[in-house]
Amino acid sequence: MVKRSVHYEAAFEDYLRTKGIPYVGVDEKKRALFKSIKLKSFDFVVYSETGGNLLVDVKGRKFPDIIPGRKRRGVKAWENWVMREDVEGLMHWEKIFRENFRGVFVFAYWLQGPPENSPFDDLHFFRENYYAFMGVTLKDYLTAAKPRSKKWETIGVPSSEFAKMARDITDLL
């Protein structure tokens, strides 16, 4: 197990372990083979019994408390932006690992309200908080992504579209 200081990644690793899903945590400090290449790393290799294995880049986002009939303030639902270097890194890793591995963004949503107010079926309780893990393949993400910020070099999928395309991570295995 890699020591995870980012709670989103730690929660996802705990989820994988709890569900008995085979994985390897990537320790970016020990990428000796690619030391000379500036290449954004991913977080986990997750193995599948039925389909291609996953190269997972975890993106942590807050998910607002959704109460019907009440306006949301602050955090938007289904935030899913990523940096261009995240995309380029996953694309490169897919080429290195080849055909039986797919790049996947897993959005680890930290629920900001009670679990019953969320739209998620599969929730994970970790360190006194609830999380939902929604995944989308790099290929699918790129077909729907649009520029978000030129300055910060970010892209994203419109929230309503992303809510339809993202799937529970176990659906990708």
Domain unit count: 1
β content, as a range?
Answer: 25-35%
Mean pLDDT score = 90
| Structural class computed from helices and strand pairing | alpha+beta
Distance between the termini: 21 Å
Specify the overall morphology.
globular
> Regions with pLDDT < 50 over 5+ consecutive residues?
none
Oligomeric state, counting identical vs distinct chains = single chain
| Helix content range | 10-25%
Descriptive overview:
The structure is a single chain. The chain has about 170 residues and is of the alpha+beta class. The chain has one domain (about 5-170): Trna Endonuclease, Chain: A, domain 1. Helix content is about 25%, strand content about 30%. It is built from four helices and ten strands. The protein has helices spanning about 5-20, 85-95, 140-145, 160-165, and strands at about 25, 45, 55-65, 80-85, 100-110, 125, 130-135, 145-150, 155, 165-170. Strands 1, 2, 3, 5, 6, 7 and 10 form a seven-stranded mixed β-sheet that branches. The protein has a three-stranded antiparallel β-sheet with strand order 4-9-8. Strand 2 and strand 3 (about 55-65) form a beta hairpin. The two termini are about 20 Å apart. The relative contact order is 0.19.
